[in-house]
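One-letter codes give the sequence; each number marks local geometry. A record appears below:


***
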Amino acid sequence: MTASNASQLTSPSDYIAHHLQNFSTPHEPMTVTGQHAGFFPWNFEALILAAVLFAVLVLCAALTDRRALFRLDRGMSFGRRLYVWWSCAWRQWLANTLLFIAGLFAFHFLMAQAGLPLAHWTAELSRPRPAGVSSTWLVALDVLSGVVANLLPVIVALVLYALLSLPLAGYMVRGGLVAHAMPAPARLGLWHATLLGWTTYVWSIPGSLAIADVAAPLPHHVSTVCRALLVVLWSMYIVLPRQLRRMTRLATPGIRS
């Protein structure tokens, strides 16, 4: 965004319209190879990243948990484990959906309020520089000011969404576990809810990376079903035990075994 363009934006609606022009250009449709999308090939780097991240998490968890990291009560059948997982999962999905919708409304409202100040700030950043400054630096500063003005609201919104979703996920998981008489503290503070949400997300990331990649070569309808089943199994046998372990530790301070 240049100084002349930014200075002409006299209202928030003009600035927002100019801001959204970057996203209005048409994109080429994805190419399809065989029966599945050609843009989603095997990605061994993603598999390696998932394996390394999972190994790091296991090593860190092993420092505090001397027993099996993913063991639940032997009396818990597959059906009960699935029921407990679903009780936590639907609460998280519903809460995240409502948070996302509220975030969209808040983002559009804040953009309408901050559009004009951002336009003036961009104009200030990209105003003409002294004659001694190289033209290359002028171009770089103009590009940088445009990038900052375009991405700053989005970055702030994503950071706020992540910060809010962590404790929200913690409270939803606690609600699901309490509904099945699982060990849980009488009250869950904001920090402990954030830790529980962190446990939920950080143990889900390696599985999400690996599952998204291993099912890529399959036909679209088959890969969708395969990913859904693998996500459920990963959540039941990897994430759920870690959530219960976190809740047990919060309910019984000082427990280590």
